[in-house]
Each structure stands twice: as structure tokens, then as C-alpha cells.
Design a protein that fits this description.
Elements: E1 8-9, E2 14-15, E3 17-21, H1 27-36, E4 40-44, E5 55-58, H2 63-84, E6 87-90, H3 92-97, E7 98-102, E8 112-117, E9 127-134, E10 142-149, E11 153-157, E12 162-167, E13 172-178, E14 181-184, H4 195-209
Parallel strand pairs: 3-4, 3-5, 5-6, 6-14, 7-8
Antiparallel strand pairs: 1-2, 8-11, 9-10, 9-12, 12-13, 13-14
The protein binds glutamine.
């Protein structure tokens, strides 16, 4: 992989095609961020479009509404997709990717072995900007701004899940990765820091070259 241009497929020099699920919610900020980083963006409004992308971002919004809008067929299609192609879920997207969802219980795609609780921070801190830590070998424990909006909380992390960012004294996991699935309970698309999106594009690029 070409270090200077990490998100291109070095052989064909073709930009990565990243889908952003655009049924509802906060998809446009992801589109802008991805384009800024040189990716080609497909706004996915129909599950059929999943066939033509290298990776997918499931944005924030209302996870229950996503489930309704996807319907059973869309949910099944997405479930197949997340097994074979890199997917990054933020906030409601993180909820969708989980194996176990609480408050209330709802279906998850099962791409990440986590238990996640919706709207877990209560009214007072419904929305907040906090400093967390991004954990990556080369950026060990570096500060990271995190925007939380009616955020869920990751309550259990399975043995195969890597924690890539934490928040607070208790080092709560707020971004995780398992294989080709990644999730953040905050909104990296609303901060200037591009490292989380870059980490996802690296994942997509590595998968594509395999
Ligand atoms: N509260 C939303 C949910 O439970 C998530 C909020 C968000 O995506 N910003 O689905």
C-alpha cells in the first residue's frame, strides 16, 4: 500500500467506493468527510446498491427507524453484506451492528460481539463533547474529541473485539473493531479529526488488496 495515498487501491489506483446508508439520519456529514479523504461515495438508499461498494458506513439516526425502513429483506441483505465487506457504524449504526441491543431490545446484525444499551447517558448529558483516547499502536493513547448525541453505551465486549477508543476515567469502550466491522458510539464525522475515518478507509483498502 502506498503510504502517501493510503485510501487508494495501489494496483489499479482506483478510489475506494464507500457507501453511506442514506435512509435517514446523519449521512451527509459522512459523505463530506469521505470525499475530503478522496473516496468515491455512494449514498445507499436501496439495498441493491450494496453490491457495488467496497465498504459501508451506517450513520447516526434512530436505530429503530433504520430497522423499519430496511424491512426484513433489507435487513437480511445488510446482514450478508456486513459478513463480507468492511462496515463502520456510528451511534445508531453501532447499535445496528451489535449482537445484543438493550433499552429496548431490538434486532442487531451481529457483526460485533458487543452488548449495547441505547440512550444510556440519560437526559442531563443527552448530548456532549468529551475528550477520549484513540488507541492505536502508532498513536497510543492520543486525545480525541468525541461528540455524543443520545449515545448508546457498550456494556459488554466479547473476546474477539478490539477496543480502539475509550472515554472517561473508567476507560469505557466507545469505539471497537472486530474483523472487518468497526463501530463508534460517538460522531467522528462531526469533529475535525479525521483519524477514525482514515482507520476505516485503511481497513477497506487492506481488505480490497487481500
Ligand atoms: N438514540 C439513537 C438510537 O437509539 C442513536 C442516536 C444517534 O445516532 N445519534 O438509535
Amino acid at each position: 500500500m502506498n503510504q502517501a495515498d493510503p485510501i487508494r487501491n495501489s494496483e489499479a489506483n482506483v478510489p475506494l467506493r464507500i457507501g453511506v446508508l442514506a435512509l435517514q439520519g446523519d449521512f451527509d456529514a459522512h459523505r463530506r468527510r469521505l470525499q475530503e479523504l478522496g473516496a468515491e461515495v455512494v449514498l445507499v438508499k436501496n439495498p441493491k446498491q450494496l453490491d457495488a461498494i467496497d465498504g459501508l458506513i451506517i450513520p447516526g439516526g434512530e436505530s429503530g427507524t433504520f430497522l423499519k425502513l430496511l424491512g426484513d429483506a433489507g435487513f437480511e441483505k445488510l446482514k450478508q453484506f456486513v459478513r463480507v465487506k468492511p462496515t463502520f457504524g456510528t451511534c445508531a449504526g453501532a447499535i445496528l451492528l451489535a449482537t445484543e441491543v438493550e433499552n429496548p431490545k431490538q434486532a442487531g446484525l451481529g457483526a460485533l460481539d458487543i452488548r449495547i444499551r441505547r440512550n444510556a447517558y440519560g437526559r442531563q448529558i443527552d448530548s456532549s463533547i468529551r475528550q477520549g483516547r484513540f488507541i492505536q499502536p502508532e498513536l497510543a493513547n492520543s486525545p480525541l474529541e468525541m461528540v455524543f448525541i443520545r449515545a448508546p453505551k457498550i456494556e459488554r465486549v466479547g473476546p474477539g473485539v478490539e477496543v480502539i477508543a475509550t472515554e472517561g476515567d473508567a476507560a469505557d469502550p466507545v469505539a471497537v473493531r472486530q474483523g472487518i466491522a468497526m463501530a463508534a458510539t460517538f460522531h467522528p464525522e462531526l469533529s475535525d479529526d479525521t483519524r477514525i475515518h482514515r482507520a476505516f478507509l485503511d481497513l477497506v483498502s487492506n481488505e480490497k488488496e487481500r
